[in-house]
Design brief:
This protein is 81% helix and 0% strand. It has helices at 2-16, 18-31, 39-62, 64-88, 91-116, 124-144, 146-155, 163-182, 187-193, 203-210, 221-225, 231-260, 265-280, 283-293, 295-315, 321-349, 356-384, 386-397, 400-411. 63% of the residues are buried.
């Protein structure tokens, strides 16, 4: 099962970066305004919000295989729509296609929970981190293939900026086929089958064996996803949100900032590749640290590191690619620390085998934070410049560490 998840992440990782690399540039080109450059990132992160909700619910009802497979298929459809919109120069088609494309990015992140479905409690962080790590190859290769995919798009009579979305369509399609055909038995359903029977019979129990559509209504996870959420779920969610918003805001406008200082798509692709690598490559070490030291210290470190990264971005001259690349690399590492530690907190707080809905809702919050950061990034740069945006991101990142320390005191 883990091998299939890893294989699907390897190919889908290329789709994850298409919007990051050229989304803001596409908006600036097609909408004619730097202030609107954050709209594509806001749209596909908003789409990932809806995708996380739908895919999480589908996983809870039917299992990981149909849920993740459907999410990747929808992402592939959105990628094709973006290519068509750019080819036809139709903004009216571009915007909804970016929204649909976001389902693929949501699925890419939700797959990490599948890695933890069958793991022992003391190894969950390492299990989910392996799935995250698998996205590294495709995610790093994607930005570096921008010139090549641009040449392919140009040869087909399509504007070069649509090239990365051609790669995304291919990656998401292959991931959907792999999961649908090979993820057997389904890890979430198997995790449920291994649990003792619950105290009361519910349609959710029938769903574990038969996949009834009504199983979700009385599922015990609704007690977690509803009003009385455990403190672990809330803490884990806030750790991820406070890392996501400033990181996405900084990441969204860095390609525009580099382009404004005379750097081409090759340089931009390299900087984004380093950032994406930093988002996923440290996952095994982060998982090990989270299992050994606990999620709270790792979360606190994520806030400190993200603040330092944003301050470096604010201080770096616009023509200094190495410093900007270092800032984005540190931001990616900080995001990884926050995501893995926050996910571990949420997973530990949920009933085993019955948490897909709440996991989806948590990633909805993650997408909302990303969308907010993307939407605010363009006006912030227009009003005060890139350095002002970076300083605001540093202030937001500072909130992670006190939250983690407060959680540690509450647990003590």
């Amino acid at each position: 099962m883990l091998a299939v998840l890893v294989a699907s992440q390897l190919v889908s990782g290329a789709g994850l970066t298409a919007g990051i690399v050229v989304g803001a540039l596409l908006a600036e080109q097609m909408l004619g305004s730097t202030g609107l450059a954050g709209i594509p990132t806001a749209l596909f992160t908003g789409g990932s919000m809806l995708g996380a909700l739908v895919v999480g619910r589908l996983c809870q009802r039917r299992g990981r295989r149909p849920g993740l497979g459907a999410g990747y298929a929808i992402g592939a459809l959105g990628s094709v729509g973006v290519v068509a919109a750019v080819a036809l120069d139709q903004v009216a088609l571009l915007l909804p296609s970016l929204l649909v494309y976001g389902a693929g990015t949501a699925t890419n992140l939700l797959a990490r929970y599948a890695g933890a479905d069958l793991a022992a409690p003391h190894r969950r962080a390492r299990a989910l981190s392996r799935v995250l790590l698998a996205a590294t190859l495709g995610a790093v290769a994607g930005p570096n293939l921008v010139p090549l995919t641009g040449d392919i798009a140009h040869a087909w009579g399509i504007p070069p900026l649509a090239g990365p979305f051609l790669l995304a369509a291919l990656g998401y399609t292959v991931a959907a086929v792999l999961l649908t055909a090979l993820l057997r038995p389904d890890p979430l359903r198997l995790a449920r089958a291994r649990l003792p029977a619950p105290e009361t019979d519910t349609p959710a129990d029938a769903d574990a064996g038969g996949g009834s559509d009504t199983g979700d209504k009385s599922d015990p996870v609704r007690k977690v996803a509803g009003r009385p959420r455990g403190p672990g779920v809330a803490t884990g969610l806030w750790i991820m949100l406070l890392g996501q918003l400033p990181k996405v805001a900084l990441m969204t406008m860095t390609p525009v900032h580099l382009a404004a200082n005379g750097h081409g798509t090759g340089t931009i692709g390299l900087v984004v590749s380093l950032h994406i690598a930093a988002m996923f490559l440290p996952s095994p070490l982060t998982g090990l640290l989270t299992d050994r030291l606990g999620a709270v210290p790792v979360a606190a470190a994520s806030g400190v590191l993200l603040c330092a990264a944003a301050l470096l971005a604010a201080a770096a001259p616009g023509d200094s690619v190495p410093l900007i690349a270092l800032a984005l690399t540190l931001a990616g590492i900080a995001w990884n620390l926050g995501l893995v530690s926050g996910t571990a907190v949420i997973t530990a707080a949920l009933p085993p085998g019955h948490g897909a809905n709440t996991q989806g809702l948590a990633d909805v919050g993650l997408a909302v934070a990303g969308s907010t950061g993307a939407l605010l990034s363009g006006p912030a740069v227009t009003a005060g410049g890139y350095a002002t945006l970076a300083l605001a991101c540093a202030l937001a990142a500072l909130l992670v560490t006190p939250l983690a320390l407060r959680a540690a005191r509450a647990r003590a």
